[in-house]
Amino acid sequence: MKRLPVPQQLMQDKHFELLYTPPYVSDLQPTEMIWAFTKHLVARQSTFNRTQHEAAAAQMRQAMDAVTADLCAKEVNHVEGWIDSFIASEKAGSLSRWPNLADLIASPPAADADDIHADGDEEDAENQPPDDE
């Protein structure tokens, strides 16, 4: 019998399914995309005599100030679109059961109601009052 990795076994024991997504892809990380944006702004200002501690630090602060809520929303939307495209692809594996990310997020977990509290914590059977019959 094939041994399962511990996280997968723990999930399976509680009737949850562990969904595998692609390995690290920077297009799935909005923070990586914002970091690339700021580095690009600083790199465009590079000069031969720029000091690392003074000018580069000041330029990085200015670049970070250029990060707006609209830019962040744009990057999050990009990531969500990438995930939707992945889910629709042949590479999606078990994720292909959902038409898109919004439906995946909205789907209830497949856990046994007796195992999980509404807040997601496991019940401690020893500390539960007996059922009245």
Explained architecture:
- The protein has 133 residues and is mainly α.
- It has 2 domains: 1-16 and 109-125, no CATH class; 25-107, no CATH class.
- 47% of the residues lie in helices and 0% in strands.
- The chain has helices at residues 6-13, 30-44, 52-65, 69-88, 101-106.
- Helix 2 crosses helix 3 (52-65) and helix 2 (30-44) crosses helix 4.
- The chain is elongated.
- 3% of the residues are buried.
In short:
The protein is mostly helical. The protein folds into two domains: 1-16 and 109-125, no CATH class; 25-107, no CATH class. The protein is 47% helix and 0% strand.
Secondary structure blueprint with pairings:
Blueprint lengths: L5 H8 L16 H15 L7 H14 L3 H20 L12 H6 L27
Helix pairs in contact: 2-3, 2-4
Write down the domain tally. Answer: 2
Number of strands: 0
Q: Please give the radius of gyration in angstroms.
A: 23 Å
Mean pLDDT: 78
Class inferred from helices and paired strands: mainly alpha
- Percent helix among the residues? 40-55%
Largest sheet: none
End-to-end distance, in Å?
A: 41 Å
What key attributes describe this structure?
mainly alpha, 2 domains, 5 helices, elongated
